[in-house]
Amino acid sequence: MALEIKINDRIARANLIDQDGNILRVEVDGKIYEVDLLHTSDGTFSILEGGNSYNIELVPGKQQKKYTAHTLYDTYDITIIDAESRYLNNRNANGAASKSKTISSPMPGKVVKIMVREGDIIKEGETAIIISAMKMESEYKAPANGLVKKINVAEGDVIQSDQILIELE
To answer: Residue 125 — φ and ψ, nearest 5°?
Structure first.
């Protein structure tokens, strides 16, 4: 399960490699750690890693996937950025990055229908492609007026996260 974790202003890429009970092998920014993680009865987390012990209180924020983490000396704002949150953020932005000249999907999926052809003129907000992901079909719209320069996929293609699907000029 790969995700990004925003800790204050830093973004870390994390991936759970293996778990056996409370012993986890995790990869963080390309480095592998073996940790003993225990959720204690008082709601804190006890973490043992490399001979060091850490205690963290994780307090849920007002928004989903946002937390405040308290350690003995510091406090951190935490945001979990997983496939679902990338999908929802992209959907809320009508499937297009602001001021971008590309259309991409924030998560893996399958191309259901391509609504444009190379050389077509497309208007901002017009549906360009439909993707099936997480058992839902989503319309991805043009982020700006433009000419369809290149279509990098075909109907039926399986796509990866953040893959550029359509380029505009």
So the answer is: 90, -10
Q: What is the C-alpha to C-alpha distance for residues 161 and 71, in angstroms, rounded to an integer?
A: 33
Architecture of domain 94-168: Beta Barrel (2.40)
| Sign of torsion over alpha carbons 139, 144, 147, 153 | negative
B/e letters for 27-47, b = 16+ CB within 10 Å, e = fewer, are eeeeeeeebebeeeeeeeeeb
Residue 116 host element (H or E): none
The answer for residues whose C-beta is within 8 angstroms of residue 123's C-beta and 6 or more apart is: 142, 145
For 74-100, write each residue's pLDDT tens digit: 999 999 887 777 666 665 554 444 457
- The secondary structure of residue 86, as a DSSP letter, is H
Mean pLDDT, rounded, of the chain: 87
- Separation CA 147–CA 49 (nearest Å): 53
Where exactly does CATH 2.40.50.100 map onto the chain? 94-168
